[in-house]
Structures are given as structure tokens and as C-alpha cells.
Amino acid sequence: MNTRRDFFRASLFLVMGTQLGWGKFLGREEKAMNKPNKSNTPNKPRRLQPGQTIGLVNPAGAVFIEDEVCMVEELLANLGFRSVRGRHLLARYGYLAGNDAERAADVNAMFADSHINAILAVRGGWGCNRILPLLDYELIKRNPKIIAGYSDITALLLAIYAKTGLVTFHGPVGISTWNDFSWNGFKSVLVDGEAPLLKNPQADPSKRVQTENRIRTIHSGQAEGILSGGNLSILTAMVGSPYLPAWKGKLLFIEEIGEEIYRVDRMLTQLSLAGILQQLNGVILGNFVDCKPEAGYGSLTLDEVFRDHLGNLGIPVFYGAMIGHIEDKFTIPIGIPAVMDAAKGTIELKEPAVI
Fold first, then answer.
1. Is 68 a catalytic residue?
2. Which of 83, 228, 233, 255 is catalytic?
3. Containing domain of residue 64, as a range?
4. pLDDT tens-digit series, residues 247-293
5. How many domains, the chain?
6. Active-site residue, 325 included
7. Residue 282 phi/psi, 5° resolution?
């Protein structure tokens, strides 16, 4: 009898645990970091004001010369801000800026510190994907603040937006060239709290034709949607993980550097096979720097690859936006609605990205 009674108790335990979920049945909630953000309302950070403090982190590749960090600090001071180094900013673990735990700890600490008003990556490289499971997304959600960067920082920007709804910013890193174009774009979005029209620099009138920073329309039209994207290879490396946002109705912007054309073809194929491209409202192609065919074999052109994968989607697509590994950069908020015009090559934010 005892054996039979124990059997029925075990069966009941198994059924309830299966139906309710073992974590809840045993009194343990599922970790918040595994739950995507469900809200459609953007979680906007506060705007950056002159005199406030920017936390410097290095979540990817190592800084090999400390003077690079010193120059970033001098730059920010010249722009009117204070700066604070992350504890492990100068750490090194091979090509990484410290081990995964150290790099993640610096990001978490900057969000937790009430004296830090914004977070800026010093440089890119590789390594952000490795620390995504170590970030405290509940902490980040409770302490919304500006986080900015590009290239490998794409992984942080997309994961934080996907998990918390926090608007993040694809723009210069600390060691970028902060010329007037890049600084004015950064300032307009993050300091002045404007909703600007993003468009390429206009040609010198004396030249009478645009020879640099040209826009090429792949498929004309206008489209509205939520901006999301970044570096193509980093984004595709995240496909299948829980750290990408939903793509339905998004305006995807992508850029790349140093990838041979067949690799760009392969990555766009992956986005297509994953069903991402088919969900988009529009595509904005930034600069694809040094993306050339390999030597000794015939190749498609970049334009042909773009048209093969994007030209028949029936959505607006243009190529040449000031996004990527270039000196003149847009600062683009991830998670804010915008309208793109593929014929004019413009991106108009529908609302400010900060409060």
C-alpha cells in the first residue's frame, strides 16, 4: 500500500510540475534574463546634459595603449563631459579586454552607479556576444541610461533593447573620429533631445554633382517602422539566440567592414533563411568598407548581392547611409519609430529618443 501511495504521489508531482513548469512548481521563478521584453513602448533614457558623467567601458577588444583611453577622456572633457573608467577597462585576456566576467561586470556596474549618466564603449573588436548571458537585464531595466557604440557593440545594443525595451544608440565609440558631422549628430539626438532628419552630407555646390557619400536606391518608396540593426556579421552571429528583438515591421540598418563579397552574400542568405528579411518594412544599407571580392576568382558585385537578397522583397531599400566604419557617422537610436525614404536616402525620427 505504501508503495502504491508513493507511486500516485510521484505521478501527481510529475504532472503538476510538467503543467506548471518546474521552476514555478518548486517556488522558483524563471530567470528574468531569459525573458524577452514584451512591451511596445520604448524605455527611453534621460538625455545627456553638459557637465554630466560618461562611464567608459571596453566590452570587446583590448586596448593595447593606455594613451588611447587618455585621448578619449580628453575628447569628452573638450566636449563638456566628465568621464569615469570601468574597473577593468585596461584588463587584457588575449585579444579581449579582460575575461568575460570582468567585461560584463563593468557594464553592469555602470548601469548600477547612479553617478553615471551615460555609457560609452571605448572601442569595438570582438567579444560582446560572449558576455550577453552575464548581463543583469533586470538591473539595466531599472536604471535606464544611454549606452552607445557600434561595430561589435551591436551585440550589446540589440540584446539590451530586446531584453529590456531600453532604447540604445548606434553611433561613435570613444576612439572614433569625433568630427563636426559625427558630434553634431550625437549631440542632436542625445544632448538636445531632437528627432532629426538623418541625411548624407551634401556635395560642394561648386562640384555640381554628388561624387562622395552617394545614395543608391535598390527599391524605391517610403516606409515607417522601428529602427534596429548594426554590424551585419555580429547580428547574424546572434541569430537563433534569445538576444535579438522581434523583426516584424522593423527598419533594418546594417553595415560591414573587411568581409569578402561572398561572405556578405552568405550572411544575407542566413537572414533570409531565418525569415528575418521577409518581416521587415524597409532596409537601410550603410557603408560596406573594404568588402571586395577575393583574388583569383570571379565574383558578384555588392550591388548584385544586395539586389538578389533585398530587391525583390517589395520594400524600400537604399545603400550608402552614413553608418559604419567611416569618419562621418549618424547616431541612430535602436527602438525608435522612423520613416525612411529610399529615393532620397533619408531617415526621419518620428520622436525624440531620450526624455
1. no
2. 255
3. 53-191
4. 999 999 999 999 999 999 999 999 999 999 999 999 999 999 999 98
5. 2
6. yes
7. -175, 160
